Amino acid sequence: MITLSLVLPVHNEEAVVEKAVIDIAKVLDKNKINYELILVENGSRDKSLDVIKKMAQKNKRFKVLIAKKGYGSAILAGLKEAKGEYVGYIDSDGQDDAEAIPLLLNKLEEGKADLAKGKRKTRESLKRLIISRCFNLITNILFPIGDWDINAKPKILHKKWTKIINLKSKDSFICPELMIKAKKLHLRVWEIPVNNYARDDSNSTFGMCTITEFIKNLIKYRFGQKE
Q: 38: helix, coil or strand?
């Protein structure tokens, strides 16, 4: 029985994905967690798929999937194939704090939370900090869900909740969707402070398109126009 299935969306991460995945695997191995890492390629223009395929050939705990372009599409595809008792997702660019994973999993196994996640205590720039705070503020105006760091990862929960929550977003809105539905279902959410690391390269996919997409989807979801 696999204890934990972690989904890692992979999009144009050729330069950083190998180190990020290996670092996560080292933490899980060190803590003797029975796991699988599901690496989901979703529309990369670089050689990300080649990199993760080679990694999977060397480590049977790594699974490779191919999904349609979109952060949410990758997560949905990975969760569908996950075999672990607990499931979750984390980014594949090395910015998320892998050391938090065992702590989050322990809290779930103790039955003290339904959804365990990170809350970033550091950001790579003042600009990203301000944008993140604005995201959370806008979300709370439309959906009063509380002082959660909506987009922070890792996010882990028991697999049974995935069918009940029934995530549908195929883009980056999947994070707000999860937190909005968690609040609606009265899930016990537990956050711990986590580090947020700068990328090892400058190929960030974050930009005005991401901001516009987030706000547009949030408004659509609030007024029942988004499935």
A: strand
